[in-house]
Input
Amino acid sequence: MNRTLLLLSVLFISLIACKQQEDALNIADISISFPSSLSEGPEDGRLLLMFAKTNEKEPRFQINDGLTTQLVFGMNVDQMEPEKSFAFNKEAFGYPYPSLSDVPPGEYWVQALLHVYETFNLSAGQTVKLPMDNGEGQQWNRSPGNLFSTPFKITVSETGIEPIDIVMDQKIEPIKEPEDTEWIKHIKIRSEKLSEFWGRDMYLGAHILLPKGFKEHPKAKYPLMIFHGHFPDDFGGFRTQPPDPNLEPEYSARFDLEGYNIIQQQEAYDFYKRWNEPDFPRFIVIEIQHPTPYYDDSYAVNSASQGPYGDAITYELIPHIEKEFRGLGEGWARFLYGGSTGGWEALAVQVMYPEEYNGCFAACPDPIDFRAYCLNNIYEDENAYYYKSDFKQLEVPAHRDYLGQIQGTVKGNNHLELVLGDKSRSGQQWDIWEATYSPQGTDGYPQRIWDKMTGEIDHGVAEYWKENFDLRYILERDWDKLGEKLKGKIHIYCGDMDNYYLNNAVYLMEDFLESTSDPYYEGEVTYGDRAEHCWNGDPDQPNAISRLRYNSMYVPKIMERIAKSAPRGADLSSWRYK
Output
């Protein structure tokens, strides 16, 4: 009996010790504050706490969805006041470790950042808090106005994180807007449509490349090429001088190329020379700035939670540019192209505004058939994070290389986004698809396509996506109305080893397009053998080069399209000077 009591006592003491050790791993008081010199009033936003093994780059620049990521934890704050310590929530969700108690022992550089939210009183009546873009293209780690701390080193012991006091003593400075040059102009307009939706002034911008002889030919009017893609801080890929001879070569890990920065400058200069060749057609090329409070661009379509960006771009911004810079101003003289996000936008805009544009060149587009939403079928799958199995739990991949090696999963990507911001506010890829395609919830935020924590798919939301944004489905459903308007206008390109599995949806789109009749679509769908993201249709050049040639590579096909489709009496001569 005594032996039994002794054993029970030892077991009880051991349990208490384990509980105390568990508590010790969770009792760290992490206090965060900021001085009134950086903000006189209280701030709302997403408070992020980061730990990194090195400080070669600040921790805020080491958070990603790949294998090199460091640690980040996030929580919402409302009315965080200056000069007052704020206790970071010990239960805050983290990535890739979900809990602060999971942080392994070792030395870390620690940093805090407040991604500041602003309040929007939407015209529909809801009030939402979101990060306004401040000229950086919705990048939480470098958005002007965000507060952050100077990194410092701490030691995490076997018993957990010791108490930490962090002062966010710095504020990201405003970004200087680019200046006009002889060739490149910049415009910004207030959008009435977007301002009404958001309940405050909202703007659209563009960088405009003028054709050779623009001043010397004041009566010329020009076709318009619209290069869709992620937020451009200036017009890229155009350089009037040869590469800088003093430029230190930089290695590109993405393309495994030494001196890629020099290659970029050379390609930009080569484009300048092509742009000025006597036989090169005279066009206007634009890159659009349309960041939203959810992402670095709007996806160029109307959506429930982001507002009427499609109409604002097509009916406000484009006509303004054409009037200001002598565009022809007619649908037959407008063309769309882009890659990845820009590829989806080029195709979607062509489909949704079929007579306002005369052709799209969509490279490696984001999913254009939601039966292949990367590796998910949102209509039939039950869970986005795991393959269906009675006994085995296998995560769905999100990123691969051309040999099939996996670098990330759908669950991991989405959990990182959940740390960076709830309610689709992370500013990252899966959240912007949700912000664009989903119906708006009663709280004013997008409805989830799936539970962000578990991956369980909401098939009711999926049906909304299908009817409004599944481009293959829309084309098939409405081909009797759209076919004649889109004949000869659809061109799609994708690598068959796209890193994000985007080729799967392209296969499904191709199946439909090739089945069309009355009319046949008369376009093209082509693939790059073993080509990764973002192959754009050049069979002779690697991605590293062809991605730098968007503004010239489709010109021959555009000219063929103009010759074939321009209406009787169209101006085909004023812009064809030497």
Confidence is low (pLDDT under 50) at residues 1-27.
